[in-house]
Amino acid sequence: METIIGLKGREILNAKGNPTVEAELITSSGLHLFASVPSGASTGKYEAFELYDGGTRYGGRGTLTAANTISTSIRDALIGMDVTRQSEIDGLLCSLDGTANKSRLGANAILPVSLAVARAAASSMDIPLFEYINSMQAMGSMGIPDIIATVISGGVFSPSGLEFEDYMYVLGGFEAFSDQLEALVRLRRHLEKIVCGQFGVVPEDGGALAPPIRSSEEAFDLMLECARDLGLEDHVSLGIDVAASELFDEGTGTYSAGIGHRLSKQKLIDRYVALCEAYPLTLIEDGVEENDFDGFCEISTRMPSIQVVGDDLFATNVSRIQTGIEMKSANTLLLKVNQIGTLTEALAASRLAQSNGMDVIVSLRSGETEDDFIADLAVGIGARQIKLGSPVRLERNTKYNRLLRISENLSAPDKKSF
Ligand code: 2PG
Ligand code: MG
Fold first, then answer.
1. Is 418 a residue whose pLDDT tops 90?
2. What mean pLDDT, rounded, does the chain reach?
3. Which site in 130, 208, 229, 402 is 20 to 30 Å from 291, CA atoms measured?
4. Where are the alpha helices (DSSP H) in 230-317?
């Protein structure tokens, strides 16, 4: 039996230069495993709580308290436990916290421990992490996901006033994952050339370009021109993450769509329908605000052939996913482990979605770390897609690179890559 003999929390920096938390776990046979948590910028109301120190250090965003919790109370509770008892350990972490949204210890203290435990279990069994995750999931087959990548940023990620948050290429139809990734690199490079040729040097956010454009039509035209130039138009369609909760004004019940424009829900959905008619738009994430299960249902009814994705809507939370299933709100779950705070709960979320015929997209957060756990997660649960962003930032490429290794492994299972 492989047991936990040491556990330490540490404050580290994410890709945005903000503090986050890493767990370091030591097992009885001497394994050292690390895991860290990302954080979002456009976080939903129903996400698990991230605990920050307050005060003046790092503008109040320090994570020493959460890191210290790992080294003390979580450590004391977990010492001696068998690393293969993931659900028991996650249950214990939840009960140590004792709140519905992990607001006492912080999900940023709980999640890195949960992920490090899974890594330790896989290592102790001498199997790759994705295989271990698949065995815990007990449903569906493993597979390399297709890529969804934000290449143009708007909303809170851009100073431009461009109406929606993420403009994404939805890739598909490639023989090999490596071909798909190479195509994405070419798309991102060529798009930069087109955009900079037109606007000069433009700001970037997490590798996505933020040109001074205001309308989705302009973003789509740039993206399609780029795909056509490279002869890749049959391999890409378009997606948007509206992140509509960021645009919603509760008082008036309206949405801001770009600077100076306010739209009713009806007009906003009409706008999606018009965009779908004019462009190969196949994916709309968070098209209305996070409480509006009916609004999501209306999007699904009016555009039955696209992927209607719930991110802030579901918050990787089984009870919200259950409501969405009953109300036929969306056909796709965006799965973000730190929205819920333990691996066991994230797996339950994907199991519920998949067993009800929904697609799952495993997603990063805008404030990522170098941890590549979500690549194994996506493969292990057989997610249809993974949302990782532009492949020009190492915090994103660690995940792409892990998928390259895994895809080699899956095509030649005798040559295991761990
Ligand atoms: C999202 C992600 C990535 P964040 O909304 O899907 O764009 O953003 O991690 O800031 O929530
Ligand atoms: Mg989103």
1. no
2. 96
3. 208
4. 265-278, 293-302
Decide whether any atom of ligand 1 lies within 6 Å of the 307 Cβ: no
pLDDT band at 415 (very low <50, low <70, confident <90, very high): low
Beta-carbon contacts of 187 under 8 Å, excluding residues fewer than 6 positions away, are 151, 169, 226, 227, 230, 232, 236
Q: Does ligand 1 have an atom closer than 6 angstroms to the CB of 166?
A: yes
For the chain, the residue count is: 418
Nearest alpha carbon to residue 211 among 185, 228, 191, 184: 191
Q: How far is the CA of 42 from the centre of ligand 1 (A)?
A: 6
**188 residue type, one letter:** R
Q: Which of 50, 65, 18 is nearest to 395 (CA)?
A: 18
| Residue the block writes with tokens 């002869």 | 231
User: Crossing angle for the helix pair 343-355 and 129-137, nearest 10 degrees?
Assistant: 60
| Residue 414 binned pLDDT confidence (cut-offs 50, 70, 90) | low
Q: Which two tokens stand for residue 88?
A: 């028991």
Tokens of 318: 């089984």
Which atom of ligand 1 lies at the shortest distance from residue 367's CA?
A: 9
